[in-house]
Amino acid sequence: MFRFVSLFKVIVLFSFFSLFIACNSKTPSDSKIISLTIQESEEKSPDVVLKKLGNLDEDPDLETFALVRNGTEEILAVFKKENGEWALKSKIGFNLLNIGPFIHDAKASSWKAGEDENSKESGYVVKRILMEELPGDSFNSLFLEVLSEEPPLGLFSVPYVIRKGEKILDGLASLKDHQFLAKSKRIDFSYNKEEKNLTIFPNNRTYAQNFNFNGWELVPDVPNVAAPGLLSVEAPANWTKGVASEVVIWFKNRGSYSGTTYISLSFPQGGKVEIDSGKEGLRYYSPGSSVYSFEKKYINSKFPLLEITKEGWARNHKYGVRFKYTPDADGIPNMLVRSSSKSYRDTVNLPTDFSSVKTEVDQQGFKSYPLALVSRGKAK
User: Fold this and answer.
1) CB atoms near residue 286 (< 10 Å)
2) Taking residues 274-298, what's their average pLDDT?
3) What NCBIfam families would the database entry show (predicted)?
């Protein structure tokens, strides 16, 4: 009888501690990951290939990211505990028609069937995952090398960068036509932790190219082209219709030295803008003003517009703009931001036609980055 009671206590205690550990686990179980990521009707022998902790947003509480293989698809999913329960925060899927272990043969410049002994923590489609911090961020983003297949290239790999669940570099969309990819079949990359930029083809002097984070996405480093990086926004906590409030925006040139850079700040929700008329290089265009359009002709503006002309902008140097804005409605207003620099004979606009993030077209017909006027970042 005594032995039976003791055994019963052991079983109860073991069950309690097992439940306690499960409830306090730093990562979700594989079964939980699969159930949150894939609908039961879409399961094709799913398997969790990789599971890691990381700080992937401004919240200091850690997230879990996992690589889930489901049939011929591999899914990068991010999870976070909310009210004690695991929740799916984001997921991005990558597909191949024929899935299996492949290794890149540098001498033959091709992908061949086989296991990579030096890469134990990778999938069949997602070949590599790095976790690094972008400039201005206090959290990590995920850097991926992803295998793809398209004629006439066949199998090839390109980089992706995921920040807070969103693609800020889509290598398939922006780099698959790179002239050296046709030969190498792989866009290798490295990340410089000091400069905080990404380099593709880092071991090739001819084709090596840096990409810099401008606050929205990773953009190529082009000679004589500035890349205005959003450093900070100072704005009121609440916006009220008809009430003027001060806004201060700081940019940092994360690109190359530029002789002349133009930054356009457009206000598609209307309202009223006031500036310090003595600020060098800053000009205000009221609605109805004549402005230059994407179609290379002058049109009358419909909304307020600020244009910054920055002469001789060196890499890593800052520029700040201060203005007062009176909204036409309650709530957080949005503006549109874009820039242009002249590289030799060509004018380079940011965002480009190959932008990896969501853009909007401003009143002049140019692609632009949306920016909500809420406080963020630090002017450092």
Assistant:
1) 11
2) 92
3) LIC13341_fam
Extract long-range pairs of 209-214: CB within 8 Å, 24+ residues apart: 211/169, 212/135, 212/254, 212/255, 213/134, 213/135, 213/136, 213/168, 213/254, 214/254, 214/255, 214/350
Q: Are 232 and 200 within one domain?
A: no
Q: Give me the pLDDT at residue 120, please.
A: 65
Chain segment 37-69, per-residue pLDDT in tens: 999 999 999 999 999 999 999 999 999 999 999
Q: What pLDDT band is residue 119 in, cutting at 50, 70 and 90?
A: low
pLDDT greater at residue 21 or residue 373 = 373
Q: Rounded mean pLDDT of the chain? A: 92
Whether 9 maps to a domain, the answer reads no
Whether residue 105 contacts residue 112, with contact meaning beta carbons closer than 8 Å, is answered with yes
Q: Considering all CA atoms of the chain, what is the largest pairwise distance in Å, rounded to the nearest integer?
A: 96
What's the CATH code of the domain at 328?
A: 2.60.40.2230
Contact 156, 104 (CB under 8 A): no
Single-letter amino acid code for the residue at 277: S
Check whether 1 has a pLDDT greater than 60.
no
Establish if 17 belongs to a structural domain.
Answer: no
196 plus 336 within the same structural domain: no
The residue among 213, 248, 276 that closes a domain is 213
- What does the DSSP assignment read for 288-306? T-EEE-TTSSEEE-SS-EE
Residue 24 is assigned to a structural domain of this protein:
no
* 239 lies in the same domain as 197: no
My answer on whether 196 and 234 are in the same domain is no
The count of domains in the chain is 2
DSSP 356: S
pLDDT value at position 342? 83
Is 203 found in the same domain as 110?
yes
Region 319-341: mean pLDDT is 97
- Residue 235 domain flag: yes
φ and ψ at residue 14, rounded to 5 degrees: -65, -45
DSSP string, 73-110: EEEEEEEEEETTEEEEEEEEEEE-SS-S-EEEETTTTE
pLDDT at 65: 97
290 and 149 assigned to the same domain: no
The DSSP code for 238 is: S
- The CA distances from residue 171 to 95, 109, 351, 353, in Å, are 14, 19, 16, 14
Residue range(s) defining the domain that contains residue 171: 30-213
